[in-house]
TrEMBL record:
InterPro entries attached to this UniProt entry: Na/Glc_symporter_sf (IPR038377), Na/solute_symporter (IPR001734), Na/solute_symporter_CS (IPR018212)
PANTHER family given in the database record: SODIUM_GLUCOSE COTRANSPORTER 1 (PTHR11819:SF151), SOLUTE CARRIER FAMILY 5 (PTHR11819)
Domain of life: Eukaryota
Family: Belongs to the sodium:solute symporter (SSF) (TC 2.A.21) family.
GO cellular component: apical plasma membrane
Keyword Zinc included in the entry's annotation: no
A GO molecular-function annotation: D-glucose:sodium symporter activity
Protein name: Sodium/glucose cotransporter 1
Subcellular location, record wording: Apical cell membrane
Catalytic activity: D-glucose(out) + 2 Na(+)(out) = D-glucose(in) + 2 Na(+)(in); D-galactose(out) + 2 Na(+)(out) = D-galactose(in) + 2 Na(+)(in)
Transmembrane segments: 30-49, 97-118, 148-171, 178-196, 243-261, 282-308, 350-376, 397-418, 424-446, 466-487, 581-604
PROSITE patterns: NA_SOLUT_SYMP_1, NA_SOLUT_SYMP_3
Keyword Ion transport: yes
């Protein structure tokens, strides 16, 4: 398509439209979607019956036997939800490529994950945005009732997550990563071909201006419908930019460090690795894949605005309501519209599978990680003498939604030095939460506003850019943690070995803080004579055997380990040493990843 013949006023939305969901109701698309679900369930069932799910370590940490490539794929799939496809593409359509810089920050952060992971290994929230984004796509593509579609997806996802454990989640994540990447590359190729290549893409995006900008009663400011002059720059003005460069570099780094270095979903996958070299390689693989969303999601969203300018770039509330039912704009449907309108039969079904894969991978990650937190951090305190079978059942049938909130309080984010104490960390967390929620309440009360109708929220509360607000909040919380820690009694080092950075290499035995409480528990009488008798095993019925097989509760536990064997196994599981050759290989790849990320920033700066 020659750029000189292109006109932004002629779009796919000018002619009478067939409902978008009717385009998907053909044999080719439906067949692809059915095949997708069959393959996902097959992989999930294979993982269920080929791995040991009968122990706590096998269920929650995949037996610590995972190699680097499924770990990297699972990290990527756990992070990339349907919110990325909808949100990144929509923001790209509205304001350009700067939002893609968020993803490149992660490529640098993935190298830092390794440092934090050593602390976890040595120490022995459901995503409503993703559900909303997936609902947008499902409703647009299939015309299904949103709530029915979500219930079906949750049921299928929960089936192999609850029964298969982390191994099933990681292997299905790997499959879904492959589906997401293949489908996204195909759509990106179609999109750039349709728009005429990269040079034409740059030129046409700057001219993607809707023709309907006034309805007689409403006059719209030009900046509300004209692409930003800095649309193809990542680093934007620190005062007037929609994503200021200091906020991108420092504010986003703070947020990414929290997610990638301390979030249960990420850490749990890393802990499932065979050794530290596989952890590093998996994180680096994920870092490389995080370079792709700029091209596969952000730029495709911008192309959607070029091809369907009147729909994606609408500014009049009446027009936006007609296209997407939202008066403030329709950029959120940029990616789904491109899929439904541009892709041929069959490939359209593949892209719907991509969106389902991104949603399901995020849900499986949350389900399994929340289950781990509930079972190991809460249930074991309620039932201190719970058997392994009891822990397995509790982990499968806990209340996931509640645990996703509890996870916010479960991670040792502040264990950097002995100078940071529990009291300081707790009150720093509380103060930061109160400051953050005060802004959230104000924005809910006054609204975030739009280009046409700015918010009335007081400038002192809402006038600070959210990335700058993250920096301010981090500094206030850090100062609070440090001050209160200095004013309170320090925790003896004997309780902190291998739990903070300065004591990470300690070899001494650590004594848990609640050890005294456990010692005070009632002990059996000393004069009791224990007789080792073998209790005859009752014969199980067919239904009970099928239930145990499906849930992995009938697998052999193996012979009981001696004390020496238990110590050797513990040493192996907490060992962070590496073979020199592989340490050099992964470290060099980490440096290459950092160099590539810096080059990308410099090229698009």
């Amino acid at each position: 398509m020659d750029s000189s013949t292109w006109s932004p006023t002629v779009t796919a939305t000018d002619s009478p439209e067939v409902p978008s969901y009717e385009r998907v109701r053909n044999a080719a698309d439906i067949s692809v979607i059915v095949i997708y679900f069959v393959v996902v369930m097959a992989v999930g069932l294979w993982a269920m019956f080929s791995t040991n799910r009968g122990t706590v370590g096998g269920f929650f940490l995949a037996g610590r036997s995972m190699v680097w490539w499924p770990i990297g794929a699972s990290l990527f799939a756990s992070n990339i939800g349907s919110g990325h496809f909808v949100g990144l593409a929509g923001t790209g359509a509205a304001s350009g490529i700067a939002i893609g810089g968020f993803e490149w920050i992660v490529s640098n952060i993935c190298v830092s994950v390794i440092l934090f992971l050593m602390e976890y290994q040595q120490s022995s929230l459901i995503k409503l945005a993703d559900i909303f984004s997936g609902a947008i796509f499902i409703n647009l593509a299939l015309g299904l009732d949103i709530y029915l579609a979500i219930v079906l997806l949750l049921a299928i996802t929960a089936l192999y997550t609850i029964t298969g454990g982390l191994a099933a989640v990681i292997y299905t994540d790997t499959l879904q990563t492959a589906i997401m990447l293949v489908g996204s590359f195909i759509l990106t190729g179609f999109a750039f071909h349709e728009v005429g290549g990269y040079d034409a893409f740059v030129e046409k995006y700057m001219n993607a201006i809707p023709t309907l900008i006034s309805d007689g009663n409403t006059s719209v400011k030009s900046e509300c419908y004209t692409p930003r002059p800095d649309s193809f720059h990542i680093f934007r003005d620190p005062i007037n930019g929609d994503i200021p460069w200091p906020g991108l570099l420092f504010g986003m780094t703070i947020l990414s460090m929290w997610y990638w270095c301390t979030d249960q979903v990420i850490v749990q996958r890393c802990l499932s690795a065979k050794n530290m070299s596989h952890v590093k390689a998996g994180c680096i693989l994920c870092g490389y894949m995080k370079l792709l969303p700029m091209f596969l999601m952000v730029m495709t969203g911008m192309i959607s605005r070029i091809l369907y300018t009147e729909k994606i770039g609408c500014v009049l509330p009446s027009e936006c309501n007609k296209y997407c039912g939202t008066p403030v704009g329709c950029t959120n449907i940029a990616y789904p519209t491109l899929v439904v309108e541009l892709m041929p039969n069959g490939l359209r079904g593949l892209m719907l599978s991509v969106m389902m894969a991104s949603l399901m991978s995020s849900l499986t990650s949350i389900f399994n990680s929340a289950s781990t937190l509930f079972t190991m951090d809460i249930y074991t305190r309620i039932r201190k003498k719970a058997t392994e079978r009891e822990l397995m059942i509790a982990g499968r049938y806990h209340f996931s939604f509640l645990c996703s909130f509890i996870s916010l309080l479960s991670l040792p984010c502040f264990y950097l030095t002995q100078d940071f104490h529990f009291q300081g960390a707790f009150w720093g967390l509380i103060l930061g939460f109160l400051i953050g929620i005060s802004r959230m309440i104000a924005e809910f009360a006054y609204g975030t506003g739009s280009c046409m109708e700015p918010s009335n929220c007081p400038t002192i509360i809402c006038g600070v850019h959210y990335l700058y607000f993250a920096i301010i909040l981090f500094v206030i919380s850090l100062i609070t943690v440090l001050v209160i820690s200095l004013l309170t009694k320090p925790i003896p080092d004997v309780h902190l070995y291998r739990l903070c950075w300065s004591l990470r290499n300690s070899k001494e035995e650590r004594i848990d803080l609640d050890a005294e409480e456990e010692d005070n528990q009632e002990e059996p009488p000393k004069d009791t004579i224990e007789i080792d008798t073998e209790v005859p095993q009752q014969k199980k019925g067919c239904f009970r055997r099928a239930y145990d097989l499906f849930c992995g509760l009938d697998q052999d536990k193996g012979p009981k380990l001696t004390k020496e064997e238990e110590e050797a196994l513990k040493q192996k599981l907490t060992d962070t040493s590496e073979k020199p050759l592989w340490r050099i290989v992964v470290n060099i790849n980490g440096i290459i990843l950092l160099a590539v990320a810096v080059f990308c920033y410099a090229y698009f700066a």
